[in-house]
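Can't paste images in this forum, so I'm doing it all in text. The chain is below; anyone willing to post the predicted structure tokens underneath?
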Amino acid sequence: MGRIKTVVLWARAHPRIAVLVFAFVFFIVSMFFLSGGSTNNSTEQSATKTPVASPTLTPTIQALQVPTVYPKSGDVEVGGSLAGVSVFFNAPIDTSSIQIVAEPAINFRVGILADDPNRIILTPLTPWASGVKYSVKILRGVRTSDQKKELKQDITIEYHIKDIPTDNFIE
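Text version of the structure:
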């Protein structure tokens, strides 16, 4: 009881310092209780505490659809030409997100028309070889220009290339 009386008398004599000391002690005690009330800093105890993750909002990315491809899979009469493939999506496309794999290997230029941003045109850089069966795959991950939709699965188009018929040409 004598110590408490001494502290009270000291606090009355030095009120400004007493307020600072009280605030410091209150801060230390608060931190002790906020940390779980433990002074044990061993690795064993800290390993059992689970950190609390801050909540984050993850935007939902909708599935991008491909309603039409032209020409459709099957026999196509484009042998020896640089005829393009039109792929129609249900929203404007970010062409930088497009990846294409073809068997046998053939490279494409990917184009988009300003007046039809939902359609991409795949133009081969070398002519289609007659008699060859091509499998052209647009890999999942294609995004819309607003980044709200994404192609969730690969799109595969298979062509059996035939010669362009010449019987209708005027000689």
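The beta strands are 62-63, 68-70, 74-79, 85-88, 100-103, 108-113, 116-124, 133-138, 149-150, 155-163. Confidence is low (pLDDT under 50) at residues 42-46.
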